[in-house]
Every structure is written in C-alpha cells, then in structure tokens.
Write a structure and sequence with these properties.
299 residues; Tetrahydropterin Synthase, Chain A; 3 domains; three-stranded antiparallel β-sheet; 54% helix; rod-shaped
Length: 299
C-alpha cells in the first residue's frame, strides 16, 4: 500500500527535478526569467538550474551573426548618387541589455535595429566623400567610420558590431544610361579628334609630296633646258667649224636640204623665176660663189 504512494511521489520528484534543470549548448547563451524579469544569466555551456514552473529559460545565439543590409541610396558630396549595400558581422555582448532592447523578438528584432543603424550611418559618412573615394579599392577609412558609429549605437542594444563592409556600390539604374551616353560621347569626341589629326597629317604629307613633285619637275626641266642648250651650242659649233673648213660644200648641202623640204608633199607648189638663185645647183655645173650659198633655204 505504501509502495503505491511512493512510486507516484518519486515520479513527481523526478519531474520536478527535471523541470528545474536546463542545458546550455556551447553555441548558445541563456537568460532565466521570472515573470518577465531577468533573474539569472547563463553564458557558459553546461547545466543550469531554475525554479520549476516559475522561471523560464530563453536561449540566444552566442555565435557571430551576419546581416546583409537593404539597398541604400546615398548622395555623395558632388551630388552624385550611388546605390550601396553593406554586410555586417555582430554578436550579443550583453544579454540583459539585449533582452531589454529587443524584448521577446530576439535576434530578428536585433537585425532590424542594426539595419536601421547602418542605413543611417552609411549615408552620413559617404555623404561627405567623393565618388572616387567611394569607388576606389582603398576605402577602408570610410568603412572604419561606419563601423565606429555602428559600434557606439550597437553597444546600447547589448550587441558588439565586429565588422562592416561595403559590398556593392553602383550608380542608380536611371543614371547608368546617362553615364554610358556621356562615356560614348567622350569616346566619339576623342575618335573625331584622332581622325582630324590624322587628316591634317595626311594633308601635310600630300602637300609635301606635291611640292617635291613640282620641285623635281622644275629641276628636271631646268636640267633638260641646260642640256638642250649645250647640245644646240655643240651643234652650232660643229656646223660653224664645218662651214669654216669648206664653205662651198656647206652651201651645196644646205641647198639640197632646202630642195628636199620645199618639194616634199603631194600639193607643194613653188612660184618663182627660172633664173632664181634658188636653182643655182640645178641649172649650172659651175660652183656658185660664196654669196650664192647664202640664198634662202626654205620657201
């Protein structure tokens, strides 16, 4: 009969003992709450104890968590706009402050609050920077300023912001086409300048070539005139020497040449007196005197 009461009592005691024990995983932290108030914190892995049926245990992440912010439109110092995304790593540093800040929503509410902090800090910092500074590879100083603000405001939430990185910095979609159009216009202007410089250089080459042609042609004509004049002088000298050696033969030869030139052609006709000196060598076997050799040779 006694055993019938002992067994349920033992079961009740065991259930009561089990409800007063909780286990904290090494990846978690725990808060013991009594009527919504924090009465105990458990940050080390292992067993913990609480009052059964009166106290509750709430678990939180002890690992480093990540947050990808929503897209933020930032106006830079030069009135240029950029769309910026950031990635942050954070962890819970103070369980009591964290519970007071986020309430029963836990890590999800902390993500929202941290996203709001970064959405305010990023425009404040990048608003004083130029586009070249934001888009350059060396923007560590800007990210450190954002991290400092996030650390200060995150500490009030009981969280530690470990790092903040800008993951995407792009022009807004409506500005991309205008930027590409401006880049195309600049490249087309540069191409037009290159073509103009090329045309100018080609014109200079053609002008130099034309000038050289004129100079070479003029020099060739001058040399030809000189050679022709020298040849004419040699010819006249030879003729003069030949005339000086035998004037009678020279006169005879000139008369024969005149006959050939005058009587050439189908319709040639000559009207002159029969006793003209032009026919001296045709009508007489005697040699005319030197004056007769000076008769006209061509009609």
């Amino acid at each position: 009969m006694r055993a019938m009461y002992i067994i349920p009592a033992l079961v009740g005691v065991g259930a009561l003992a089990l409800s007063s024990v909780f286990i904290v995983d090494e990846r978690k932290k725990a808060l013991v709450l009594q009527f919504g108030e924090v009465v105990q914190t458990k940050e080390d892995a292992g067993l913990g104890f609480k009052l059964p049926f009166v106290q509750d245990v709430v678990y939180y992440e002890d690992r480093i968590l990540g947050l990808q912010t929503s897209t933020i439109t930032v106006t830079l110092s030069g009135d240029r706009r950029l769309e910026v995304d950031a990635f942050s790593r954070w962890r819970i540093s103070d369980l009591i402050k964290f519970r007071q800040a986020v309430g029963a929503e836990g890590e999800a509410r902390a993500q929202q609050l941290l996203d709001g902090i970064l959405s305010q800090a990023i425009p404040d910092v990048l608003g004083n920077a130029t586009q070249a500074q934001v888009l350059s590879q060396d923007r560590t100083g800007l990210m450190n300023q954002i991290l400092k603000i996030a650390k200060t405001e995150g500490a009030a939430l009981g969280i530690e912001v470990i790092d903040v990185r800008l993951t995407r910095t792009e022009l807004p979609a409506q500005n991309l086409e205008a930027t590409f159009a401006r880049m195309r216009a600049e490249r087309e202007r540069e191409a037009a300048d290159e073509k103009a410089r090329g045309g100018e250089a080609a014109q200079k080459v053609r002008a130099a070539a034309d000038r050289e042609v004129v100079e070479l042609t003029s020099d060739a004509r001058r040399q030809a005139d000189v050679i022709r004049g020298e040849a004419d002088a040699d010819r006249n000298r030879i003729l003069a020497e030949a005339f000086g050696k035998d004037p009678e033969f020279f006169a005879f030869l000139r008369s024969l040449t005149a006959y050939e030139v005058s009587l050439k052609g189908e319709n040639s006709s000559i009207v002159m007196r029969p006793d003209s000196e032009f026919f001296t060598y045709l009508r007489s076997e005697s040699v005319p005197d030197a004056k007769a050799t000076e008769a006209p040779t061509t009609p």
